[in-house]
């Protein structure tokens, strides 16, 4: 079974919106689906959590790199102004 991930859309997202994964535009139906206010990706997305130990190593200039996906949604606010919801929370799906 293939790993999947979901991202809940913010409440203020209404109507048309654009989805970006790591800065790359995504296409509905090809890259993700929408189910009950949630974006569903047929891929295992991960958001890197930096532990105290890794932070300390980084402070000393030692890099530790892991997968760190970012999902952003660009939409229009009710007043017509453009908005971006950045770095939305990623959840694994069973």
Task: Describe, in plain words, how this protein is organized in 3D.
The chain is mainly β. Helix content is 9%, strand content 36%. The protein has one helix and eight strands. It has one helix at residues 52-59, and strands spanning 4-8, 17-21, 24-26, 32-35, 38-41, 71-76, 82-85, 91-93. A four-stranded antiparallel sheet has the order 4-5-1-8, with no helix packed on it. Strands 3-2-6-7 form a four-stranded antiparallel sheet, with no helix packed on it. A hairpin with a 2-residue loop joins strand 4 (32-35) and strand 5 (38-41). The radius of gyration is 16 Å and the shape is globular. The protein starts with a strand and ends with a strand. The model has no long low-confidence stretch (mean pLDDT 85).
- Helix percentage range: under 10%
Instruction: Give, in spatial order, the strands making up the sheet with the most strands.
Output: 4-5-1-8
Estimated structural class: mainly beta
Number of helices: 1
Instruction: Describe the main β-sheet briefly.
Output: 4 strands, antiparallel
Give me some keywords for this one.
mainly beta, 1 helix, 94 residues, four-stranded antiparallel β-sheet, globular
Short description:
By secondary structure, this protein is mainly β. It has one helix spanning 52-59; strands at 4-8, 17-21, 24-26, 32-35, 38-41, 71-76, 82-85, 91-93. It contains one helix and eight strands.
Compile the SSE list and pairings:
Layout: E1 4-8, E2 17-21, E3 24-26, E4 32-35, E5 38-41, H1 52-59, E6 71-76, E7 82-85, E8 91-93
Antiparallel strand pairs: 1-5, 1-8, 2-3, 2-6, 4-5, 6-7
């Amino acid at each position: 079974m293939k790993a999947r991930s979901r991202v809940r859309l913010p409440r203020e997202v209404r109507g048309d919106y654009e989805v970006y994964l790591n800065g790359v535009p995504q296409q509905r139906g090809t890259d993700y689906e929408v189910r009950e206010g949630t974006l569903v990706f047929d891929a295992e997305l991960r958001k890197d959590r930096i532990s105290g130990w890794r932070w300390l190593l980084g402070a000393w200039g030692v890099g530790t790199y892991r997968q760190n996906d970012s999902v952003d949604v660009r939409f229009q606010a009710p007043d017509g102004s453009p908005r971006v919801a950045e770095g939305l929370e990623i959840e694994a799906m069973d």
